[in-house]
Amino acid sequence: xxxxxxxxxxxxxxxACCNGPSEPLATLHTGLEGTxxxxxxxxxxxxxxxxxxxxxxxxxxxxxxxPVAVAHFASDSTGHYRVPLVPGSYxxxxxxxxxxxxxxxxxxTVGPVGITHADLAFDTGIx
Length: 127
Hints:
The protein is mostly beta strands. It has one helix at residues 7-17; strands spanning 3-4, 31-39, 53-54, 58-63, 68-74, 80-84, 88-94, 106-110, 115-117, 120-123. The chain has a single domain (3-39, 51-123), classed as Sandwich (Immunoglobulin-like). β4 and β5 (68-74) form a beta hairpin.
């Protein structure tokens, strides 16, 4: 799994959302971690057969009120991801080349302490 950070944007986000001294992203002890899935992957879901599957793709993390990109991450082949972020509210947006889930932003919140677990589920539109 690789994580790319938009350092100028991330630095601005750190300064904008923190009270007191900012902490460099490399030393952050807060962020998001979880699994990305997509589904359904078949028109009719069957008992005992998963309808959602782990999803490997690229994602941008934006922070409001202006949609400022503060980080970029990719989920691995098992759908796992981890991205360091300062506490706050964010929108996770699939990259435009990520198939099946374009245009589905998800709202997430990073808690004030530790890594916040957030599973991201995207709808494929298959019915």
